[in-house]
Each structure stands twice: as C-alpha cells, then as structure tokens.
Amino acid sequence: MRALTAILLLIAAVSAFVAILGIQHITSSGGTTAITYHPASVRISAAVVGAAALLGAYGCFKKHPLFMRHAKDRTFQPLGITRRYDLTDLPLASFERRFIAFGIDFIVVIIMVAVVSLSGLAARGSGSQDYNLHLDPFHGWALLSLPLYFGLGTYLGKGRTLGKKLMRIRVLSLAHDHLTLWHSIERSLGYGASMLEGGFGFLQYFIHPNSQTVHDRIAETIVVYEPKAKHPPIPPPEPTAPSGRRGSP
Questions:
Q1: What is the phi/psi pair of residue 60, to 5°?
Q2: In whole angstroms, what is the distance from residue 241 CA to residue 72 CA?
Q3: What is the pLDDT of residue 23?
Q4: Helix, strand or coil for residue 117?
Q5: CB-based contacts of 42: which residues, under 8 Å, 6+ apart?
Q6: Any residues with CB less than 8 A from the CB of 137 and at least 6 apart, and which?
Q7: Region at 123 (left for phi over 0; alpha for psi -120 to 50; beta for the rest)
Q8: Cβ neighbours of 148 (radius 10 Å)
Q9: How many Å apart are CA 208 and CA 201, to the nearest integer?
Q10: How many angstroms separate the Cα of 212 from the Cα of each of 24, 94, 130, 222, 238?
Q11: Measured between alpha carbons, how far is residue 139 from residues 39, 103, 135 in Å?
C-alpha cells in the first residue's frame, strides 16, 4: 500500500509539472534560448491524470492506521503536564551562555559554508584569478545551512549542538521526554521568527518568566544549564577492629 501511494504521488507531481509549467524541452544556440511548450491538450490531460492520481493516493492513505486514528473526532487532552512538573526547579541557562553557544554554532556554520564554497571553486578548476566567494549563510542555498545544522545538531546531540555542549547547556522539551527530529527542525526554523522581530524575539529571554525566547515557545522548549558533575569525596577507610588473641583465658 505504501509503494502504491508513493507511485501515485509521483505521478501526481509529474503531471502537475507538465500541466502547470508545460515545458517540453529547452534548446540553446548562439546565445539564444528557445523553450518549447506542450500543447494545451497535453496539459489538460496531465491535469486530469494528476488529479486522478492524487485522489487515488488519498484513497490509499485513508486506509492507513495513522489516518484512521486522526480522522475520528477526539477530545482535547492537556499534554505535557506531568513533564512540566518533572522539570520543576531545573537551573535555566543564562543569557551569556546561550549567546556564546549561538556564536560558536554560527561560526561553525560559516566554516561549513566556506568549505563547501571553496570545494565548488576547486571542482570547477577555474584558471581565472577572479573569485566571488559568498560566506553569507542568510543568502541563497546557504540559507538552508542554519536550520539543517541547528535542527540536526540538536536532534543528534539530544538537545545539544557543539556550542551548547561546550557551554554545558541543553534544550529540553516541555511536552515530551525527548526531542524528536521535527521538534528540533521546528525550533531551528523558529530562529527566523526571533530575527524577524528585529532581534526582539531573542531579548524576550529577559521578559518571559522561564526565559523562553520566541523560538523556544514555538517548539515548546526550555534551555537548562547542566553543571559539571562533581565527584563525591572518597570516604576514609573504616578502622578495623583488632583481632582478639586466641588461646585459653
């Protein structure tokens, strides 16, 4: 059933490409580019096939247990109540630690973007001395480097990226015992919401009673401080009682 659903979705995607864009082939000669489009009859037929494939995929998905569980009416359940009580009195990470950790992670992202860009220049093997190297992770394809690094890093590190690990802080979920991949990606995308507010989303750390920024509230997370574990002192050996002398009294 899963294979059939995937095939139908693939047919729907290809049909949508043909129906909407309608590009048959592209030719370039002498600096002139020519684009040939499918006739209207082909595009209409592709739209019909795509709609039928999409309906078929929906019909297959309706039989999936996941859909059946969410299709019926449900009642509201307050999630994460017990989890929040379990997190009570945990030390929250300071703004200084969070700021330094973010700076470390941002430098790592810059280095990753630079390595990929330099690898691309080396692969082209250009003999020209003119190079145009962009190290801006907020531009072009590099824009994906931020959510990928912070999302995957938080998930694989169980709440800790490299910067957070060095600063001994960790991201914890308020609703679940562990961070899922989706929650990690959602929190990383939430950085954009904090930045879109002119950076005020980060400064809400000082306003929220639990020091939650905008991206923390989006993903329902907090950041806690994990002090270095102190080894308990080794107790001195207990004195042994002197052994009595054997023999007759």
A1: -70, -40
A2: 73
A3: 75
A4: helix
A5: 18, 22
A6: 106, 109, 110, 113, 143, 145, 146
A7: alpha
A8: 14
A9: 11
A10: 51, 11, 46, 6, 50
A11: 37, 18, 9
Decide: pTM greater than 0.85.
no
What pLDDT score was predicted for residue 157?
94
Q: State both tokens at 25.
A: 């082939």
Query: Tokens 């060095």 belong to which residue?
Result: 166
Q: Is 169 helix (H, G, I), strand (E, B) or coil?
A: strand
- Backbone dihedral region of 89: left (phi > 0), alpha (psi from -120 to 50 degrees) or beta? left
Q: Which phi and psi angles does 23 have, rounded to 5°?
A: -80, 125
pLDDT tens digits for range 16-43: 878 887 777 777 676 677 778 788 888 8
- CB 240 within 8 Å of CB 216: no
8-state DSSP, 92: B
Between CA 156 and CA 179 the distance in angstroms is 9
Place of tokens 């009859």: 41
